Amino acid sequence: MFPVLAVRRIVYALSIAYALLSSLAPPCDAQAPAAGSPNFVVATIKSSDPNRSDNKSSIGLSPGGSFSARSMSLKQLVEFVQDFGYIDVDQRIVGGPKWLGSAKFDIEAKCDEATARAFGTMPAKQRIRTEQDMIHAMLADRFRLRTHHETRRLPVFALVQANSGSKMTLSAKAGEEKLGGTDGPPGNWKGNGVTMAELAGDLSSLPEIGGRIVIDETGLKGRFDFTLKWPPDSTMGAAPPGPDSGAQSDSSAPSLLTALREQLGLKLEIKKEPADVIVIDSAELPTPN
């Protein structure tokens, strides 16, 4: 399993252990796997026990091709295999059964030894891309999941430069193929080699954003290091961000909007833009093991 917060922070109390691949194109629509493609040979799917003492959600991949999910909804699983840049962003998923986001499942899946050995020789990005496709094929098989992508004009938040311009430091990772990301809980982020597309994806996952997509329109290229501190406020996403009132919690940190402007030289603007969405054509409760 990749270590928790190795490349991303905790989002909505999810303990997410995976390598960020937001720069990769999303996989094809969920269909039956092609002949000869790697697949899990064993996959156990059970309904989560809502009464167990430790019911936190978690999800992870191992370098050897194993996959484990705990207390995850099908909606979260679809997001996980479709696009690592966004987690719990309501706008990304359209349609599906009523239980799509409420029913929770525990999954344990393993590949055969030959596939596990092959993973050991793959570059990290190729290995995770392959594992992602394997999970997608499993969802298509066991949940009878069928999806397709559409482009729709949606009210989104555009991440742009403030009048002051960027206040972030160009990272030593600039130009490298290493994965970057924010680390730390909401309210206390440390960015290490973060692209603006990655930062936009991270912001999209915050309760303050209200389930909307944040897109990068900063025009800033390369990777950046920064520290961003603010008191988490789940009410901000209820309305489009307007002039910051300067209101603070008992923390001395400024609100998210002020923190973005003062600490990073960035701001959020609401606008309508074409956005890629995942349409759930059909899904069923998983078949018994």
Q: How would you characterize the overall build of this protein?
A:
By secondary structure, the chain is an alpha+beta fold. The protein folds into two domains: 15-150, no CATH class; 152-275, no CATH class. The protein contains five helices and 13 strands. The protein has helices at residues 74-82, 113-119, 124-142, 196-204, 256-264; strands at 15-17, 40-47, 58-61, 67-73, 93-95, 104-111, 146-161, 169-170, 181-183, 188-194, 214-216, 224-229, 266-282. The strands form three sheets. A five-stranded mixed sheet has the order 1-3-4-6-2. Strands 5-13-7-11 form a four-stranded mixed sheet. Helix 1 (74-82) packs antiparallel against helix 3 (124-142). Mean pLDDT is 78; it is low at 1-35 and 238-250.
Distinctive features:
5-stranded mixed sheet, disordered N terminus, 18% helix, single chain, 289 residues, 4-stranded mixed sheet, 13 strands, 2 domains, alpha+beta
Summary, kept brief:
By secondary structure, the protein is α+β, with helices and mostly antiparallel strands. It has helices at 74-82, 113-119, 124-142, 196-204, 256-264; strands at 15-17, 40-47, 58-61, 67-73, 93-95, 104-111, 146-161, 169-170, 181-183, 188-194, 214-216, 224-229, 266-282. The chain has a 5-stranded mixed β-sheet. The protein has a 4-stranded mixed β-sheet with strand order 5-13-7-11.
